[in-house]
Specification:
By secondary structure, the protein is of the alpha+beta class. It has one domain: Umud Fragment, subunit A, CATH 2.10.109. It is 19% helix and 30% strand. The protein is built from two helices and eight strands; from the N terminus they run αβαβββββββ. Strands 1, 2, 3, 4, 5, 6, 7 and 8 form an eight-stranded mixed β-sheet that branches. Strand 4 and strand 5 form a beta hairpin. The N and C termini lie far apart (34 Å). The relative contact order is 0.22.
């Protein structure tokens, strides 16, 4: 086997091994990070696209800002997996589209008549918006941290 292929594929292999059984794990009310590996920016995006491409229910996004530190930093590449709104539970890390049309990944807390309340781990207050069946993108399936995201 070509050694160059092994060097490129090893981080992805480690992430994929870490993902085995992730969908079956019980949801804890305390938010836990998705499996991650530290690679270069282009490799992170490439690996995330490979994971996302294995299902038509996944999408790749790139993080910005500090709201989800210490779990995700600037330029962390996330793979979101579509989920039925009825299957959401407190503590899940969800992606949604806010009123300004931006994608946001935060942790859901409680459901009320308006939808699910959400908040960034590093934010002092909940988001103004609620996650609803109409703005939900999905839950975090995997993360790929670049060297920039780890700083």
């Amino acid at each position: 086997m070509n050694r160059a292929y092994l060097r490129i594929s090893l981080p992805l292999f480690l992430v994929l091994v870490g993902l085995v059984g992730c969908a079956e794990a019980p949801v804890s009310p305390v938010s836990k990070p998705a499996p991650a590996t530290d690679v270069g920016r282009l490799q992170a995006w490439s690996d995330a696209e490979l994971v996302a491409g294995r299902s038509g229910d996944r999408v790749t996004v790139i993080g910005s800002g500090e709201s989800m530190r210490p779990i995700y930093g600037e330029n962390t590449v996330l793979v979101l997996n579509k989920i039925d709104y009825a299957d959401l539970k407190p503590g899940m890390q969800v992606g949604y589209v806010n009123e300004a049309g931006r994608r946001v990944v935060h942790v859901i807390h409680e459901k009320d008549a308006r939808g699910w309340s959400v908040q960034g781990l590093n934010n002092e207050a909940e988001d103004r918006e609620r996650v609803t069946r109409y703005n939900l993108i999905g839950v975090v399936y995997a993360s790929f941290a670049t060297g920039d995201a780890m700083r």
